[in-house]
Structures are given as C-alpha cells and as structure tokens.
Amino acid sequence: MSTEVRELSYSQAIQEAMAIALEADERVVLMGEDIGVYGGAFQVTGDLIERFGPERVMDTPISELGGAGVAVGAAVTGLRPIFEFQFSDFATLAMEQIVNQAAKMRYMLGGAVSVPVVMRFPAGSGTGAAAQHSQSLEAWLGHVPGLKVIQPATPHDAKGMLLAAVADPDPVMIFEHKLLYKMKGPVPEGHYTVPIGKAAIRRSGTDLTIVATSIMVHKALEAAETLAAEGIDVEVVDLRSIRPMDSATIIASVIKTHRLLCVYEGVKTLGIGAEISAMIAESEAFDRLDAPIVRLGGAETPIPYNPELEKAAVPQVPGIVAAARDLVRGVR
Amino acid sequence: MSTEVRELSYSQAIQEAMAIALEADERVVLMGEDIGVYGGAFQVTGDLIERFGPERVMDTPISELGGAGVAVGAAVTGLRPIFEFQFSDFATLAMEQIVNQAAKMRYMLGGAVSVPVVMRFPAGSGTGAAAQHSQSLEAWLGHVPGLKVIQPATPHDAKGMLLAAVADPDPVMIFEHKLLYKMKGPVPEGHYTVPIGKAAIRRSGTDLTIVATSIMVHKALEAAETLAAEGIDVEVVDLRSIRPMDSATIIASVIKTHRLLCVYEGVKTLGIGAEISAMIAESEAFDRLDAPIVRLGGAETPIPYNPELEKAAVPQVPGIVAAARDLVRGVR
Amino acid sequence: MTAPATAPAATDSTNLPFLYRHYPREELLGALRRMHLIRRFEEAAEESYMRGLIHGTMHLSIGQEASAVGICLPLTREDQITSTHRGHGHCIAKGADVSRMFAEFFGKTTGYCGGRGGSMHIADVSTGNLGANGIVGGGIPIAVGAALTAKRLRTGKVAVSFFGDGANNEGAFHEALNMASVWKLPVVFVCENNGYGMSTSTERSTAVPNIADRAAAYAMPGVIVDGNDLSAVAQASHEAVERARRGEGPSLIECKTYRHRGHSKSDRNRYRTKDEIDDWMANRDPIARYEAQLSEFGIAGAAEIEAVRLAVRAEIDAGIEFAKASPAPATADLADYVYTEQQ
Amino acid sequence: MTAPATAPAATDSTNLPFLYRHYPREELLGALRRMHLIRRFEEAAEESYMRGLIHGTMHLSIGQEASAVGICLPLTREDQITSTHRGHGHCIAKGADVSRMFAEFFGKTTGYCGGRGGSMHIADVSTGNLGANGIVGGGIPIAVGAALTAKRLRTGKVAVSFFGDGANNEGAFHEALNMASVWKLPVVFVCENNGYGMSTSTERSTAVPNIADRAAAYAMPGVIVDGNDLSAVAQASHEAVERARRGEGPSLIECKTYRHRGHSKSDRNRYRTKDEIDDWMANRDPIARYEAQLSEFGIAGAAEIEAVRLAVRAEIDAGIEFAKASPAPATADLADYVYTEQQ
Ligand SMILES: Cc1ncc(C[n+]2csc(CCOP(=O)(O)OP(=O)(O)O)c2C)c(N)n1
Ligand SMILES: Cc1ncc(C[n+]2csc(CCOP(=O)(O)OP(=O)(O)O)c2C)c(N)n1
Ligand SMILES: [Mg+2]
Ligand SMILES: [Mg+2]
Predict the structure, then answer these.
(1) How confident is the model at residue D267, as a pLDDT?
(2) Is the pLDDT of residue D8 over 90?
(3) Does residue D6 register a pLDDT over 90?
(4) Which chain D residues touch B100 with a CB distance below 8 Å?
(5) Quick one: average pLDDT of B298-308?
(6) Which CATH class is domain B200-328?
(7) Active site residue A64
(8) Three-class SS of residue D56?
(9) Taking the complete model, does pTM exceed 0.90, yes or no?
C-alpha cells in the first residue's frame, strides 16, 4: 500500500492521532499547559487549536494537580480528555489524582464508573534540562493497578497506541521520550490502533534477548548491528506496554535465546528492568537461562546538566554492546 | 543488661526516639497533621506536645505539598524536621517536594547544601480503610536516588533507625506499617542507632532464603516455624533498608541456601521483590540457584474494603508456607 | 421539642423564610425525612460498628444534616456531586437507598460499591453521587471536571462539590476554584465548616476567619450561611445552582455547622470542650430547629413528625436486614472492577 | 537616553522617591551596576547559547531587572531567597559572581553547581540564594521553610520567595502562603507578573486581575508596584522586609513587569503582539528609566553611567574567559553529590 511508506515524525504521528480522535468524537478534548497557540512545549499539539478551537484544545493554568483532577472528573462524566503534562516530572504534582482517583475509582465504586482518561508524559533525558526536567518515572505508574501504562517507541506505534488509548475505557498513561519526537518513521494514514499490552519483536535473533523500552529500543537495534558484525545474533524486543506487560512474548524469546539483557533509561534500581528480570526468574524460562540476567538502566543519580555527565547517566550504544558481548561470551 | 528486656510497642519506640531527638537538639522539630493535642492519627506523637510545646511539635494545616516543602526548606536552612504524613497515601500530594526538591537539591546545587529531613509514612493495609488509605508505595521512593528509604520491622529498629535518620545529613524516608504500631518488643533505653543500609538475618536456615520487608518479616518468621516442623529450614532476612539495599547480605544468604523467595506487601509488579530478584539474578548468586526466584507481593488490585478481600490482597502466612514448600520441593 | 397542638396557618407566605415559600409541603416533609434518615442511618451505622458488623473507620456527620439536605434540595437527580470522607449525609440527601449503603458498610456484593469501597467511598452514581473520597480535597477538581463535561456537552447539569474547612488549605481547592472561575463552569463549591479539620481548628489552620473570604481570590460569589438552618442553606444553594445553570459560573457557599461526634472512631476529643459540644447539640441541632419551624409555620405537627421518625426507623431496620442477608464477595472475585471489561 | 550636562542638585530630598531618600550614592550606583550586570550577563549567555557554548534551555529575565535588584536591595547577605526558572537576575541581585554563573552554564566544575545544575538550578548559597527551580512554584514552600528556621532559631533572617504570575495558580502557592500567615513567618512573597505564564496570559489563567488581590485570602498585605521602577520595588520590599523582621508576618508584593525575550529558547511568540513587546522595550525599560532618574536627581551623569556599563562589560568578558578555561567534570564523578559524605 502506498500509504504505508509515508513518513511522519513521532510528534506528528501523535498530533495526527489526536486530530483523528477530535474529528471522530466530540467528547474528545485536549487539556494541558500551553497546548493552544503555543502548540505545546514540544510542539506536539501544534496547530490543532486552529482546527478545533480553544474549547477542544484547552490551555490550563499551571495547575497540574487540579488539571489532572478536572480531566479525571470529565472522563468519569462523559468526556474523553487527553491530558498533556508539559514534562513528566510535573506529574509528581498530580500523583494524587492519577493514583488515588483515576486508577482506583472504578474499583472503589465496584464497577459503577469507568475513567477513560488519557495522559501523556514527555519523559527522559538528553535535552540538557537537568534533574527536574529529565526523569523517567514510568516505573511508578507501572506499579499501580487500575492504570494502563505504555511507552511507544516508533511513530507508527505512537499513533496507533494513542488511538487505542482514546478508545480504552480505562486510564491510559503514555510515556513519550522527548528525543523521539523528531524521529521519523512510516505511519499509515487514517484510523488504526496498536493494541495495548503487546510487545513487538523488532529484530529476531538467537543468541541473546534484549528487552528495551522507548528510545532504548533504537539504541538496542543499533547495538545489535554492531554485535551482528561480531557474529552475535541479538533478538530485540520492544516492550511497548508496561502494564499490562506481555510476559508471553518475552518468555518465549528467552526460551529461544537463553540470555536476557534489559535496557531502560529510568533509574536501574526498581526500574522496568527489575520487573522484566524478576518475571523471567520466576517463569518457565528460568531453567533455560545460560547466564545471569543483566540490567542496564539509568545511573543511581539525578540527571546532571553537563552534557557529558548527562550521557553517562543513561545507557548508550557502546555500553549495550559491551554488556551483550559479555553476556554471550560468558564474561562476568 | 536489664534495660535490654524492657518492652515497648513500635509506636512507643518511635515516640521515644523522637523525644530523645527533641531533647538532644533544639533544631529538631516535628511537623504533621494532628500530631499535637490529637497525638497523631496513630498516636505516635502522643503527648509529646505537652513536653515540647507547639513550636517543636507543629500541627500543620491539611497541606501535604506545602508542608513537605516547608520541611525541606527548613532542613536546608538549619532545622532537622521530622515530618509525618498522616497516611503514606497522602504523600502522593507531596511527591514534587520529596522527589524533585529534597532528593535532588544537593545534587543540583553541586553539594552546596544538605537536606537533613526525615519523613515518616504510615503505610499498608489491614485496617479496613480501603484503597486510598492502605497503599504501600515504598517502591516509588526506593526508585529515587538522593533519598534513603527504610522500613523497620521491629520496635528496636524503629527507634534505632529513626535516630540514625535524624543524624543523617540526607533525606530519610521511613515506612511504618500501621499494623506494627501496637506490636511489642525489646527496646533499649537511651540513645542508640541502627545503621541505615543493613539487612538483618532474623532466622538462619539452609534450605531457602526469604527476604521480607516490614510486617512480612513477622509473617515469614511464622511461616518458617510451620516449615521447620516439616523439615524445611528457612533463613529469614529482614531487608530493613530499601535504598541503599544491602545486597551483600542477601547474596550471601542465597549462595548458602540456593533458593530465594521475596515477600512484600506492595503490589507485586515493580515492587520491592522485583528489585531483590533482579539483583540476585545478575549477581554471583545466580549460578547457585536451584530454583526460580519467587515473589509473593500484593495483588494487582487496589486494596478492597471487605475484610476478607483485603486479606486476600496481600501475602498471608499460609501463602508463604505454600510458596516456600513448593520452592524447596521443586513443584512448579 | 413540642409542636403546637394545632399548626397555625401560614397566613402571609411572603414573610416566611425562603424554604417555605419555595417548596410545597410534601417536599418539606421529604427534606425532614432525609434529615432523619441521615441521622438515624449514622446512629445505626455507629451501633453496627460497635457490634463489630462494620470494620475500618467511619466519619459521622451527625449535626450537619441541614447542610447536606439543604444543598441538594435544588438539585435534580441528574446533577452531580462529589463528596467527602464524611459523606453519608450527602449520599442520602442526593437520593441513595440506605439498604445498599448498609450493604456496602457490611462489605456485601449488594452494596453500592460491591463491598470494595466501604464508608469512605460510598457512592450512588445513579442518583448523581460520584462518591465520597478518602483524600481531603480530592473530589474538588473532579467536580470541576463534571462541570466541564456539562458545559461542553451542554447537558444542563450542575456539579456540586462538598468539602470541609480543613480541605480549603489543600492546593487542590485553590487550583480547582481558579479553573472553575476562569472557565465559568456550572459548579457550586460547598464548604461545610464544622470548625475543625480533625483536631485543628480553622483558626489554627486557616489564615482567614471564614472560608468564604477566599471566594474573592477566585472572583466568585462567596456566601456564609448558618449551616444548621435548612432554609438558609437551601436558599444559598438555590441561588448558586441557578447562577450555575444560567451559565454565570461557580459560587462558594460556606455552611457553618458542627459535628456532634468525634472526627472518626479514634478521636479522644482533646481539642474541644464538652461545653462547646453540648451547646451545639442542645441549642443548634439542625433537625430540632427544622422541626420547630415546621410546627411554627403550620406545616407539620408533632404527630406528623413522629410518623416521619417511625417510617425512617423502619426503613433503617429493613436496610440493616437487607445488608445482613446479602452475600459477601468471593475472594476469587478480588480483581473484579480493576479494569473495565473490554469487548 | 541622554543625561543633562550638569546634574541638578537634589535640593529637597523629601520630595525624592524612596530609593533616593533611603540609599547613599554608592548603593544607588551599585544597584545600577547590578541591573546592567544582569542585562549583560543574559545577553552574553544568549550569545554563548547561540554559539553552542551552552546547551539545554534558558529563560531570560531581560526587562525584569528592576524587580530582582529592587527586591534584594533591603536584604542582607544572610537573608535567603528562593528563585525560579527565570532566576539569573535574582542570583546576581543577591550578590553572586558572574564568573561562577557562566562556569555553571558552561557545565564546568567551577560553576556554582559544579556543572550539575545549569541555568535552571543556578544558586549561590553563600550569598543566600537557595536556588533557581525547575518546578514552577517549587521554591515557595521552601522559602517558608527558611523563614520557619529563622523564626525558630531566632536568626533574624528574612526569606524572600520569587515566583511568576503563572506560579500563583499552583497549589504550592496557596498552601505556602496560608502556612506563612498562620505561623506569622518572616517571609516576603514576590510575584513577578510579566503578564504571561509561558504563552498563557494572566487573564486566561487567573480568575482575578491582580495576583496581589489574592493576598487577602491569606490575611496578609498585598501591594502592587510598577516592577520596572526600581524605587517603587525597593520601597515595597523595604516595607515588607521590615515588617517581616519585626515579627509581623508575611507580605505579598506584585511587581508588574515584562520579559523582552520569548519564554525560553523555543518560543515562537505567537501569543503576544510585536507592538506590545516594542512598547515595553521602548517606553518602560527598567534600566533606561533608572538611568534617567539618576540623571534627573543628579546622582550620575552620562559619563558615570557609561563607566558602569564598561566595567560590567569587562566583568562579563572576564567571567566568560574564566568559564571557558575551567575544567569540565569527569564522568567518573557522575555520582558525586547524590549523598552527603558521611564520617
Ligand atoms: C489529603 C489528606 N490529608 C489528610 C487526610 C486525613 N484526614 C481525613 S479527614 C481530615 C480532616 C478533614 O477536615 P475537614 O476538611 O474540615 O472535614 P471534616 O472532617 O471536618 O468533615 C483529615 C486530616 C486525608 N484523608 N487526606
Ligand atoms: C510545575 C511546573 N509546571 C510547568 C512548568 C513548565 N513551565 C516552566 S516556566 C512556565 C511558565 C511560568 O510562568 P510564570 O510563573 O509566570 O513565570 P515566567 O516564566 O513568566 O517568569 C511553565 C509553564 C514547570 N517548569 N513546572
Ligand atoms: Mg471540618
Ligand atoms: Mg509570567
């Protein structure tokens, strides 16, 4: 199909998904700080306000807790808000509404309501914005039953998963790595969905499984090319969905390769890789492991401002190559 | 020593620690909602206001974010505040100050300040207070570099670790399980500290290591008695400190027993047990494992109100016994 | 309180307080019934708690019934409220069935929340109650969201958010009231000021003497009413609800009231005097005051009031029986309702 | 702007604005120097950014210098401030050394934060600046905490919290101002109202026309000043700081001002007109206004002002050289400063 080859950036893909949702359903509204005429801090909403007006593309005051709460209340009563945090770090102000209200309301009320809210969290480091604008807090929300938590890694998935999120009756949290916004990739036109809860095998291989999230998928694929040249055949799994997690795909891959490396940007301790590792260590894949499970995660530090330190604080391609090589060659 | 046999409840032990700290250092102040004449929602501050007055034992308005921020600002400028969240669930309102400010301020300022604040979080289920008053969110804070995060399981440790926390120049977060408050145990008189960052072996054994946190330590010890009667010899490790985590003690135990079961009340996915499991799976203990690493954590649900459901939502002794038995007997 | 033997005719209705001018007799008696139902419901819940039929904790609104009932009087069933930890009264005032409330407190499947929520999450979405809330101030932004839906989808609904004096110091209060005002949303903020947030008096917690003094900071009307005077509350609510329905934006109503009981089941009552409590109970009880007015204005005499009391008592007893007889959820169903079943 | 050839003698000093009555000539020139230093620092930082010497983003306060300098005039070195993402001016006004600020922006070990913080966390604790803040409103409760320390330890210090108009809609603002008032703490809240929170005008974000209108909700004085008039700002600050030092509690000062540049390096300036910007730049520039006053009141003529400018330029150039020559941190030191070294 000719439409398959069209390329969009990750942010354009999200914008297109939002436009489709706004067009299709008058209940959909966008909310967030400076998403109107400014177009969003990362220009993801762009000019949508011109097409849909300020009643559908709502600038909120700088009130993350209240704004998230308004989105939750609106979702419970009939709207389908897509709420943008300007940076995921500011969600620290709104955890109450996300975790105590959105995630639990259906349960606490015995099924009497659903909370179809979508929240978008621009996340991650690499922009030189230092410790309070660079965090990767997806593990927190992944720990919370009642939420669905996703991390699309490609423009294709960003669009399809956002459209799946809008259609989902439950609260869906989308972590978008800021460095992906400009990345281009093929994006089909029109409406389509990519299911929440399914991982994707981005490269198949036999020697080692790398499960990576978000931007780390691309770094892992780059590392896999280097490793291929050394004769190491890596399978790269794009996790895509943290809650629910597609254990079956990961287990099957590890049963095939006998080795697992988890690569993620969030702080290593208690990050996504901890869960993947633990899930495998209690699964039927455990007996098939030929090597320890290794995690490459963010450093145990806040994200520093200095660009060299900043790079050193999260996994990079050479580190992935080295860790994979050691794992396959049996170096401890 | 005769003082060693004196028994106090967990909450009395904390209160005694606070009294010692208030007595010893005029910079120490207590802050929190209803910690004055009310004595705290769980009567932990009790009558301290009568001894130290309302300037040292400060009732705050119901303003968790602002209150935590005031404590952080006070700590940076010379006080040593001990801030009580009435329930740990309300910390969702204050994550901004805890995570963006307290945890990162020293780093962001290149070491120019320290933030000697102590925060106390009454946590956990079992009181029939339902989903918004029963969470175990310690994994969130354990994921945050710059914080120290502890979970004392006994009155002795509650006092000694709180005194260590007050002396610590960095922010220390203390998770106290509400069901422990009434539990009694030996508590030495006077000032002593229990170091932050050290696990404790509560029972030594050869067949299986159970690493448990907080109230689960006691359930694990109870399970160990049952298992002993069946000829299964369990080693019980009380984690005590989440960040920093005492990997060495856990690794040594697993190298000895070849099997690991993690028991914790927080939601299983991305909870404390995920980190313990993953840490072992990438350690030198990996090759010594004779069985998969099993986690018993909280259910993937909010905490329900109904008491039977509430019990079913977190690990209980029979479940621990069964999981341990299966692990040792090799049942999958 | 004794009513005159024969109720005097309300000759000049223009001199009567708002309530009596505005509502027909059966609605006035309905309001009386709901006030008694709240009172008796909470007394019965307290007894059940003492007898071990209910676990956890609960926050009783005994003494605050006029506020819940008066505010809800001008609301339709479609209008929506968000409530608080002290939310039994709001739930009943909005029209919930006490049987299903008891069932919830008893942790049964027939409860409004299937036994998952309990007292602190009591709700009846079918009568517009989006739920009590365990988080002080947590419901305020949610009500603003409900008002946003009403405005965007032009449903004509009004949202009402109940909260306490303590809640007014939460950031959520500030952020929500500001947004509601900037967006001119159809929402009414109702502060039930019972003088204390748990043990902390408003004087020790709040920089201004009245919560309504803060309305000006959000450019909305702020009115203070005697929260134990049903008519005064109903009038303030009527005006605020009409304003909201006309599209003129939010209002803040402060109902000055008092809780007779402790904050929750664990209160040693150290922060207020017995005299203060006794005074409110003896001289400002909202039900006694309303009954006196009903008599005075010739709407209901002692016999009719007694009939309401008896009917309420029967309704409560039947509710408890229903709750007792209902099944508890199976532990196998623990994970129900975490997510919406998808097709 | 041209100064009169001979500066007229300030004959009747009682008719002069506050600033000129209150501060000796060298302090007035010091204030001029600091305003120029801020302006030139930010221009140079902008140039360095364009030339790739600085990465990340930055928020320039060009046009707001009178607010930073005027507020800090009555403060001692020991008094403490918390600042914002737009914090370079506050840092310089409080006494920081521009060399170490540039070094920080260049990510060097000699920077105030050892290269870990950058523009958004610029701080100089030694001169009482507890730091810029990447979180809008994040510094407000921290300043209240500093004031609590001052009160409890009786240090006599005053805390000042700078924040923007956008920040006033954060819950942190509400909670912090309320606590400061209830506890009568020595803190001054300074809202630098430049008309916009990023792209959102105060009119679209804030229910009241002036931020100071909210002071009443916290029972504290709220004053509005022309934030581009150094004397007016200094006077308001003087009064609030003295009040705080006397133990009478907090105040809120709203400085009406304007930023000449975009919000940050990524601003397309779609939300305000070129006319509006030009008007503020041409007619209300705080430095030009101050220089005109200095001339008018005979404090400094064109030559003296030019000397200040030149000295500032040299200081900036030297600062950049220092920063360039300084070493970058080693990646091996990534984890320094996460925790305090323990004995
Ligand atoms: C965010 C939050 N903080 C604290 C509490 C604990 N708490 C429950 S009710 C209450 C007092 C609330 O006071 P008020 O708003 O005046 O309501 P009232 O209880 O008087 O009806 C407190 C502190 C809570 N549930 N949520
Ligand atoms: C909690 C939080 N929300 C949003 C942002 C993003 N942000 C940075 S500055 C800014 C505008 C702040 O406006 P104002 O307080 O008026 O300060 P100004 O930029 O005008 O100086 C926004 C929205 C942030 N840094 N922190
Ligand atoms: Mg109250
Ligand atoms: Mg501004």
Answers:
(1) 87
(2) no
(3) no
(4) 134-135, 138
(5) 98
(6) alpha beta
(7) yes
(8) coil
(9) yes
